[in-house]
Amino acid sequence: MNPAVRIDSETGLKIFNTRAAKASEKITGKGYSVVADQKLTELPKMPAGATFNAEEQAKYRAFKEARRGAADYMAMEGAFKKYLDDVYSEPPIPREALDDECEILVVGAGFGGLLLWQKLSEAGFTNVRFCEKGGDVGGTWYWNRYPGIACDVESYSYLPLLDETGYVPSMKFASGFEILEHCQRMAERFGFYDHCLFHTTVEATTWDEASGRWIVQTDRGDKMRARFVILANGILTTPKLARIPGMAKFLGESFHTSRWNYNIDLSGKRVGIIGTGATAVQAIPELAKVVGQLYVFQRTPSSIDVRDQRATTEEERTTWAKEPGWARSRRARFAKISEVRAAVLANDDYLAGKIQDFKERKKHDRELTREELMQKQLDSSFRLMEQIRARVDAIVKDPKTAAALKPYYPYGCKRPTFHDEYLPTFNLPHVHLVDTAPRGVSEINERGVVHEGVEYPLDVLIYATGFQWMGTSTFNRIRGRSGRTLTEKWETEGARTFLGLHTRGFPNLFIVTGPQGGGGSFNFTDVIYAHADYLIWMMQTMRERGASVVDVRKEPEDKYAEHCRDVDIATAPLRDCISYYNGEGRAAPGSLAYYGGRQWDKFRMEAQSSLEPYVFGGDLN
Length: 621
Ligand SMILES: Cc1cc2nc3c(=O)[nH]c(=O)nc-3n(C[C@H](O)[C@H](O)[C@H](O)COP(=O)(O)OP(=O)(O)OC[C@H]3O[C@@H](n4cnc5c(N)ncnc54)[C@H](O)[C@@H]3O)c2cc1C
Fold this sequence. Notes:
By secondary structure, the protein is α/β, with parallel strands linked by helices. The radius of gyration is 24 Å and the shape is globular. Flavin-adenine dinucleotide binds at residues 107-113, 131-134, 139-140, 142, 144, 151-153, 158, 201-202, 232-234, 236-237, 279, 472, 474, 512-513, 522-524, 528.
């Protein structure tokens, strides 16, 4: 029993101080600094005559087909469960198991949870409890603390609640550590800590029809009842491992990038890193500054675009201090840019509202057909990828290494990355690219990694093998009206939601940024805001109607799922590669991220004005 328990006078809920103390301060590579060498910060000119002709298309196809089926990921279970340990916090603070009731229970204390709390409390919904697996707030930015970590979407548009907290990020692309501090700032400012149970993992969520409540069970022995459950448990939360024969045999130190173990001193060591996705691209330049020998095991290269990093200027600070709502307006302008690259390298004058548009628009004599538009997009993606490939040749000196670092797929098909130090790192004598294309590393033994008969002895092995995308372990532990789990429903019927937020048969359950609800926007914060606003509207509507239960009807859910499928198929050529976005080529169209752009808003607005998709029930008592 924790003596520091208090009772909330307004809600009667018990309040515990479960925020854990930091376990370690030994952090290196705190962020991503500005690169002075201009040659490294620009893309080479567009190669003359670059066209996405039959030969180039065949090259892309071969690149893709050679990798089909190569991705074999596994969950961290059994001997690998240790990779999930929370290395950032002291052990959990003891507290009693809870057997009580709250109005709203939210899973997760990342951007989603934090923003929901600010909005819910502002709207007068204070009987809210949060459960968070980690020892503090931050979510993605709590778990990911690898050296070099930074956001890829400009921090002025990505960090939530900048206007409300008065905070201005120090860099255009803030480090993950700065983002974590901002999460703590948001939590402190809005009283979040009093509402959250840290080191508490929700293990089962079961709908009880008789009481119209969800029964929520946790790994701390809690059995709580809640009228509403909101899943804000993230879309890149559950780390995964590539399944490689012999990996349990390795006798050196090892960890996954999402649990960076700063207690292992890497200086002067032989270090291997498996994976070259977005995390590895940020971590590798920092690792190279510390380790003795670095072996980078790559199956598929990332596209390495320029970073455009810069410090926030004094002029910006002064202007924003006099402009209430500057961040909200900037995010709204940012959201109007629909191409990922245009957004990342977005014109500051446009984002600051000094000019009206971010690019010159070409006028066409007539409206382009869907096919013409697609072809135009594929051609410009090809030209950009040619520049990205030319950048590799311009920077990386060894031709064999340069050839292996060149990606052949449409821009943005795999998560695009942005870095000015990554490619030059491969010119360093102690950094070795081990090209394991197209099938990946073949074996791990007691001493290190083995590929094609060559052994690479290592002291430390780092898995940069990413996360499950749009799938969380909670989905198969949520039992709705029929007794089926959410995973079982989606396995039998295909992913089926309304707006990504509701799924029929799971009343009063809301999923934030999950399948069909998010992910098509590259600024997740936008999606989180849109979902939070929608949920406030839903709660208020139910209050006004005196309803205690909401579910959705079959027809609108089917129609929305069909729409998700159609837009995914229609835009699929732009994402024609094997990537986590499409479940490594195995996901049914429309079942994961949402690619319908602003049509989500159209569906939402129609639903909000007609209320036709909803089935309201129960008495609010
Ligand atoms: C390295 C990295 C960099 C990224 N960079 C960007 C970027 O630049 N721009 C961008 O738009 N997006 C980026 N993203 C995506 C990022 O995840 C989102 O932007 C955003 O932070 C998600 O917030 P969230 O609150 O929805 O989820 P999360 O931040 O994932 O938080 C979810 C929380 O739920 C908790 N949780 C999960 N299951 C349970 C359970 N059963 N019980 C209790 N707690 C649970 C988790 O511990 C976690 O703390 C990045 C992701 C990663 C991994």
